[in-house]
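Help needed: design a sequence for this.
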C-alpha cells in the first residue's frame, strides 16, 4: 500500500504538471496577453464597454486606459507605464487620437501587436491635424464648440452636443449618443499639432478596423494609413461611424483577438 506521503507527492506532481500544461496552453493561444484599450478624443474609457466583456470572456486581461488627452508624447508615457505593469505580452488598441498615442509608445518587447480602431497611425513628423485634412471628407471642424481656454493659455476642444450624434456616433441610438456627448472628454488643442515620433507600427504588426461612414477621419485617410503601416488585416464596416467599437463591439473584439492569436508566443 502506498504511504500517505507518496500519495501526496504524486498528487502535488500531477497538479504542478497540469498547471504547467495550462500555462503553456494559455501562452500558446494568447490567453496570457493583456489587452490595453486606449480611447480617443471626445470619448472616454466607457466607449469600450461593449468590447471589454467579449475579451474577458475569452480569458484575456483587459485594461481600458484613462487617456489624459493632453499631449501625444505625455499620453504615450501613461500607456508605457501600463505596459510595464503588465505581467506578460501586451496588445495595444487605440481609437482615433488613441492610435497616435499607441504609435508613440517606447519600444518594449512585451508589445506584440497594435490594433487601430478608426484611428490615426502617423508617420514620424506628422500631426493628427494634418492627417485629418489630408483627404477630403472630415466634417469635424464645423462640429467643434468654441475652445475652452485655460489660465496657462492652452485650449480644450469639445464637439458641440447638438452635433455629436451625427458627427461622431451616427450608428448609435440617439439617446445613447446624447449620454456620450455629455460625458465626452476634451482634447488639448496642442495635441493636434504635436509631431509624432518614430512610430511603433514600423516594427510591430498592426491591424485596422473602421467604418466607411466615419465623419471624423475620412475612410480614404484610414485606408491610406492602414496600407502604409502594412496592416496584417483590415476590416471595413459599411455604414459604421467613428465609434465603431461602440456600435460594432463584436467585430472590434474579433479583430483584437485575431491580433492576439497571430502574435502569441
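Sure. Designed sequence:
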Amino acid at each position: 500500500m502506498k504511504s500517505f506521503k507518496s500519495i501526496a507527492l504524486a498528487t502535488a506532481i500531477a497538479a504542478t504538471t497540469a498547471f504547467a500544461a495550462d500555462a503553456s496552453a494559455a501562452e500558446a493561444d494568447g490567453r496570457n496577453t493583456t489587452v490595453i484599450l486606449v480611447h480617443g478624443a471626445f470619448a472616454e474609457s466607457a466607449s469600450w464597454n461593449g468590447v471589454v466583456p467579449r475579451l474577458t470572456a475569452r480569458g484575456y486581461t483587459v485594461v481600458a486606459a484613462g487617456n489624459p488627452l493632453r499631449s501625444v508624447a505625455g499620453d504615450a508615457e501613461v500607456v508605457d507605464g501600463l505596459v510595464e505593469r503588465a505581467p506578460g505580452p501586451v496588445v495595444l488598441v487605440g481609437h482615433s487620437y488613441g492610435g497616435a498615442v499607441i504609435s508613440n509608445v517606447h519600444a518594449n518587447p512585451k508589445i506584440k501587436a497594435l490594433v487601430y480602431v478608426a484611428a490615426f497611425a502617423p508617420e514620424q513628423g506628422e500631426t493628427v491635424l494634418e492627417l485629418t485634412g489630408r483627404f477630403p471628407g472630415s466634417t469635424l471642424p464645423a462640429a467643434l464648440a468654441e475652445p475652452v481656454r485655460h489660465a496657462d493659455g492652452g485650449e480644450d476642444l469639445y464637439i458641440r452636443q447638438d452635433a455629436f450624434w451625427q458627427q461622431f456616433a451616427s450608428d448609435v441610438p440617439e439617446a445613447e449618443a446624447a449620454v456620450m456627448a455629455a460625458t465626452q472628454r476634451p482634447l488639448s488643442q496642442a495635441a493636434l499639432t504635436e509631431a509624432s515620433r518614430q512610430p511603433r507600427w514600423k516594427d510591430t504588426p498592426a491591424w485596422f478596423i473602421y467604418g466607411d461612414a466615419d465623419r471624423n477621419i475620412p475612410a480614404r485617410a484610414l485606408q491610406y494609413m492602414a496600407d502604409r503601416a502594412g496592416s496584417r488585416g483590415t476590416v471595413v464596416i459599411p455604414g459604421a461611424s467613428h465609434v465603431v467599437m461602440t456600435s460594432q463591439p463584436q467585430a472590434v473584439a474579433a479583430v483584437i483577438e485575431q491580433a492576439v492569436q497571430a502574435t502569441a508566443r
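The radius of gyration is 21 Å.
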